[in-house]
Design a protein that fits this description.
Blueprint (H helix, E strand, L loop, with lengths): L2 H4 L12 H16 L10 H8 L3 H17 L1 H11 L1 H19 L5 H30 L4 H43 L1 H8 L22 H9 L7 H19 L2 H6 L1 H17 L1 H12 L4 H26 L8 H21 L3 H29 L5 H30 L3 H58 L1
Helix pairs in contact: 2-7, 2-8, 2-9, 4-7, 4-18, 5-6, 5-7, 6-7, 6-8, 6-9, 7-8, 8-15, 13-18, 13-19, 14-15, 14-19, 15-17, 16-17, 16-19, 18-19
Organism: Edolisoma coerulescens
Protein name: MOT6 protein
Pfam family, one: MFS_1
């Protein structure tokens, strides 16, 4: 038995009470330390450019790699959780995150930052975040929805506090010492992981993903063995390897769902396209403000304003979208939030004064709250829950690809034109087109399904009428 399975066996006394609330507190801190951390990178953007004599495009690669790996490492994290358990993976993630940032403080070139702060810290943050979310499914049953909503406030806290702390430490110590201190702070993920001790659950209360499943290729292998084939036969071993590879791809990257489920196909493509513009303000807002002679402390405060408003708006948006009025219509609410994100960028194009930028941050944070609260809820609406983890794997990987390439490409455009307005033009273009694509496509899909059901009902009714008519004819003859 794997350690991941052993983490879910025994007594259920800790569920929804007692130690579960300590685990929830640890999950809040984890999300603040991991998901909230990349938002502060914009504070160091100008200093890193001057230090390494790098262009906007070159500098933006390192936060892009960090965010892409943070989102795209989900399938690898799932494999490790199943093999070693959530506690180990969270602590491993904390160790990698701390090591990555400590190593970054000694970097001599911007390309070294891609490996240390980008890849290593991003992968560590991915392990800590996703394993921390998974463990909530073991500790909470009755209050699982509330626990996930409370845990997501950690992201908003991270958005609020990381930029302020970053600007203070940067002014006092410089970016190298700040990265060194960040390495120590991220090691606290190990402390959060230590709190998430393995829980033993009552039989039948395991989450869907934790229940053992029969491997699709097992029956075929048994049939071959029963026909006299040796388990060490080269052909059989090659077939077994192919079968296991296919099982892993099917479990963590649901290509079959993508090809068969039109709703999942539209939503995945729409969100991947949306991410081309969604991350740009987080990377470039602070450099844009500094470029337009806004004081550095005030520029860092802009990201904190977005996070602070998110603390209050995101739970409200989650509760509102859970109302039965929006059942089956959350995709339109999500598209509206994405559209508002895109339109809000035009405020920055009009003016770069600090008061105008505050107004932009308020509107953007309200729209972002809707996007953040609804992303996974909509995915649950379009995919069956027994295949949700597989659908999520492909979803996050496609999302991470666009998150990786969008900031450097936009940075290259800024380098060529020397105009930061193209950041917000680009962001608006991708967000608005993604919102229109998802909203109109789902509307067309819904109409198509209604027409199909109506035509099916129309075809069924005459047959039932004909059946009732023929069944009454013998009675009339007998009479």
């Amino acid at each position: 038995m794997s350690q991941g399975e052993a983490a879910g066996r025994g007594t259920a006394k800790s569920q929804d009470q007692g130690w579960a609330w300590m685990v929830l507190l640890a999950a809040v801190l984890l999300q603040g330390l991991t998901l909230g951390f990349p938002c502060c990178i914009g504070v160091f953007f100008t200093d890193l450019q001057h230090e390494f004599q790098a262009s906007n495009s070159q500098t933006s690669w390192f936060p892009s790699i960090m965010v892409a790996v943070l989102h795209g490492g989900g399938p690898l994290c799932s494999i490790l959780v199943k093999r070693f358990g959530c506690r180990f993976v969270v602590m491993l993630g904390g160790l990698l995150s701390g090591l990555g940032m400590v190593s970054s403080s000694f970097c001599k070139s911007i390309s070294q930052l891609y490996l240390t702060a980008g890849l290593i810290t991003g992968l560590g943050s991915c392990f800590s975040f996703q394993a921390g979310v998974t463990v909530l499914g073991y500790y909470f049953v009755r209050w699982r929805t509330l626990a996930n909503a409370v845990a997501s406030t950690g992201v908003s806290l991270g958005f609020t506090l990381w930029p302020l702390l970053s600007q203070y430490l940067l002014d006092e110590m410089g970016w190298r010492n700040t990265f060194l201190i960040f390495g120590g702070i991220l090691l606290n993920c190990c402390v959060c992981g230590a709190i998430m001790r393995p829980i033993q659950l009552a039989s039948g209360s395991l989450p869907q993903s934790a229940k053992p499943e029969e491997e699709p290729g097992s029956r075929a292998e048994e049939a071959q063995l029963s026909n006299g084939a040796s388990p060490h036969h080269p052909m059989l071993q090659q077939h077994t390897r192919r079968t296991k590879c296919f099982q892993v791809l099917q479990k963590y990257l649901a290509f079959d769902i993508f090809c068969q489920n039109k709703g999942y196909q539209i939503y995945t493509i729409g969100v991947a396209w949306m991410m081309m513009g969604f991350a740009l303000p987080h990377v470039y807002l602070v450099p844009y403000a500094i470029h337009n002679e806004v004081e550095e402390r005030k520029a860092a405060l802009l990201i904190s304003i977005i996070g602070f408003i998110n603390i209050f708006i995101r739970p409200f948006t989650g509760l509102l979208s859970g109302h039965r009025v929006f059942t089956g219509r959350r995709i339109y609410l999500f598209s509206l939030a994405v559209l508002l994100c895109g339109l809000s960028n035009f405020i920055c194009i009009i003016s770069a004064e600090f008061s105008v930028l505050i107004l932009y941050c308020v509107i953007l944070s309200i729209a972002m709250s809707g996007v953040g609260a609804l992303t996974f809820q909509v995915l649950m609406d379009v995919v069956e829950m027994d295949r949700f983890s597989s659908a999520l794997g492909l979803f996050t990987i496609l999302e991470s690809i666009t998150l990786l390439i969008a900031p450097p490409l936009t940075g290259l455009l800024v380098d060529i034109t020397s105009d930061f307005h193209y950041v917000f033009y680009n962001s608006s273009f991708f967000l608005i087109t993604a919102a229109l694509f998802m909203g109109l496509s789902f509307c067309a899909l819904e109409k198509k399904n209604k027409l199909r059901e109506a035509s099916k009902a129309h075809l069924d009714n005459p047959s039932r009428y004909q059946h009732s008519k023929t069944s009454t004819e013998p009675k009339a003859e007998n009479q």
